[in-house]
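Entry: Acyl-CoA thioesterase
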Amino acid sequence: MTLPFEVELPVRYRDMDTLGHVNNAVYATYLEQARYQYFDRVLGVPYDEREMVLANVEIDFRRPLTLSNRTVRVACGVVELGGSSFRMRYRVLPDDGDDPAATAEAVLVAVEDGQPRSLPSWWRERFVEFEPGLEYDDPSTR
């Protein structure tokens, strides 16, 4: 599956663990940075007005990244829309090729006053506009 959005991020010395690999927790930060930029582009609203929380994230580590990887590319996209949530898929790619260092999925939930709420229809519209293959059941048409 092609993921429609990609960012390039620096690999920093502070990202390393004692084995000289990018620490596993840093991958979550890479995903977060890509997600932030994705929403900036697709939704076009300030981060503090997005009203969503990360409910789940799963990362499959495939091969280590090291400081010799000066940058990583993180590809991402929304792959499923639910009533109040949506699922994103990611690939973390080293600067030396297209063999992923990691793949990941995350579930985000729209919230209001700390409680789940329906995904705003304009979010759905923008996700589908940006990712034409994405489908959803529009509750307003029932």
